[in-house]
């Protein structure tokens, strides 16, 4: 996976990388920061027509998943839209992640563009996977290298100006490599709500993300049959650190520590999955979209993401590294229970874990309950009763 992580750094810096696929070369570049000159440079270097790869979530926003074109796109999971020459950068951004689906491409209407859509091939899917792993907008500029330009591109690869990544490696970059988490370092850190805590840091094999296991007290981790109280907490910088009122994360984090302590000890896994896996930059974009009336899931979809982009393979790996097989899970999220069960961890019991409902997070929590199936009736109903009384 060596090339993948290097490619991610280049993409985040706004540089193109070359995805190789069945003998062909495809230049790939992030949509963020792309200017008119980016498209011109891609066309010049490759001798091909730059195209925009869009995820199926974004295509649904654009209304492009109906009819025959839609079927082909749906089965491929993404589509490629050839871009007209001289397309303005703001039109490109509007197409990739703009709030209004009523966008047009150059002189062409959206309906005409739909007809121009081509089902994504593996290089396109690889490009999207790289963008997701890099926590960029999940849409990519791509350009196939024409035969006449191949020697030029190969020369740039040879002198180190361009990196190549095989499509099949890039496609797998979201899966993680099971069992390869590295346990890096640890320390005792007393917390306000639990004095006896040990923080253990794990690093993913590609070096990109780090996750923490906080072992609280002396849980019976290696006792056969014991169910260890467990919280899986996805990072939320705004809530966890700043006490944002837009969500319930900060309170849930602190309540989880106190609750695990009260249960006689257990483990909290603090997972680097900011913004349900879309990253902080995109979460801020999603918040701005929510300010115009969208709910938390629709806002993510405008950006091209699914309802929840998190994967829990690293959590399962951390639990096995700690020798934990049976857990009592503190969550309201059925997906977390299913993900652990899929990973071979027995969820013996679930316990709800709540923050306070307020005017700012009410809509967010309701969307989680109504659309995400989160088990929040208790807290939302209690809040409704309280507001009827006052
Ligand atoms: N994309 C997006 N992410 C959000 C938003 N609000 C909060 N988050 C993220 O949602 C995640 C919430 O994580 P958790 O509290 O572990 O999980 P949960 O899915 O709410 O389930 P529980 O275990 O019941 O708390 C964090 O990664 C937050 O950063 C939002 O409006 N948009
Ligand atoms: Zn939060």
Automatic annotation (TrEMBL):
Binds 1 zinc ion per subunit. GO terms for cellular component: cytosol. CDD domains: GTP_cyclohydro2. The active site is at 308 (proton acceptor), 310 (nucleophile). Its cofactor is Zn(2+). Residues 183-350 form the GTP cyclohydrolase II domain. Gene3D superfamilies: GTP cyclohydrolase II. GTP binds at residues 231-235, 252, 274-276, 296, 331, 336. Its EC number is 3.5.4.25. GO terms for biological process: riboflavin biosynthetic process. It is an enzyme of class 3 (hydrolase). The keyword Cytoplasm does not apply. InterPro entries: GTP_cyclohydro_II (IPR032677), RibA (IPR000926), RibA-like_sf (IPR036144). It comes from the Bacteria. GO terms for molecular function: GTP binding; GTP cyclohydrolase II activity; zinc ion binding. Zn(2+) binds at residues 236, 247, 249. Keywords: GTP-binding, Hydrolase, Metal-binding, Nucleotide-binding, Riboflavin biosynthesis, Zinc. Belongs to the GTP cyclohydrolase II family. Catalyzes the conversion of GTP to 2,5-diamino-6-ribosylamino-4(3H)-pyrimidinone 5'-phosphate (DARP), formate and pyrophosphate. PANTHER family: 3,4-DIHYDROXY-2-BUTANONE 4-PHOSPHATE SYNTHASE, GTP CYCLOHYDROLASE II-RELATED. This is GTP cyclohydrolase-2. It comes from Halomonas urumqiensis. The gene is ribA.
């Amino acid at each position: 996976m060596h090339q993948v992580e290097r490619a991610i750094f280049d993409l985040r810096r706004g540089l193109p990388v070359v995805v190789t696929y069945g003998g062909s070369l495809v230049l790939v570049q992030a949509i963020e920061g792309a200017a008119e000159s980016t498209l011109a440079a891609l066309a010049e270097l490759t001798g091909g027509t730059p195209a925009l790869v869009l995820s199926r979530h974004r295509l649904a926003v654009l209304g492009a998943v109906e009819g025959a074109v839609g079927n082909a796109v749906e089965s491929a999971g993404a589509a490629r839209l050839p871009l007209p020459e001289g397309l303005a950068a703001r039109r490109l951004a509007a197409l990739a992640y703009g709030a209004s689906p009523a966008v047009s491409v150059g002189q062409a209407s959206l309906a005409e563009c739909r007809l121009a859509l081509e089902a994504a091939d593996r290089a396109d899917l690889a490009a999207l996977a790289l963008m997701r792993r890099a926590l960029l907008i999940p849409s990519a500029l791509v350009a196939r290298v024409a035969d006449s330009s191949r020697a030029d591109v190969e020369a740039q690869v040879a002198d180190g100006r361009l990196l190549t990544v095989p499509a099949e490696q890039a496609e797998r970059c979201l899966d993680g490599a099971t069992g390869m988490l590295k346990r890096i370092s640890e320390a005792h850190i007393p917390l306000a709500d639990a004095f006896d805590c040990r923080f253990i840091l794990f690093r993913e094999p590609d070096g990109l993300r780090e996750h923490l296991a906080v072992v609280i007290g002396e849980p019976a981790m290696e006792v056969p049959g014991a169910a260890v109280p467990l919280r899986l907490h996805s990072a939320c910088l705004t809530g966890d650190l700043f006490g944002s009122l837009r969500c319930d994360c900060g309170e849930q984090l602190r309540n989880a520590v106190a609750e695990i302590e009260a249960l006689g000890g257990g483990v909290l896994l603090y997972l680097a999955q900011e913004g349900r896996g879309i990253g902080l930059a995109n979460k801020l974009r999603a918040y701005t979209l929510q300010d115009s009336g969208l709910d938390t899931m629709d806002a993510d979809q405008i950006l091209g993401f699914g309802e929840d982009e998190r994967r829990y393979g690293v959590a399962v790996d951390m639990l096995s590294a700690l020798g934990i097989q049976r857990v009592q899970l503190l969550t309201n999220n059925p997906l977390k229970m299913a993900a652990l069960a899929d990973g071979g961890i027995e969820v013996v019991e679930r316990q709800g874990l709540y923050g306070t409902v307020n005017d700012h997070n009410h809509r967010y929590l309701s969307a989680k309950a109504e659309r995400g199936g989160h088990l929040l009736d208790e807290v939302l109903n209690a809040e409704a009763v309280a507001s009827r009384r006052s």
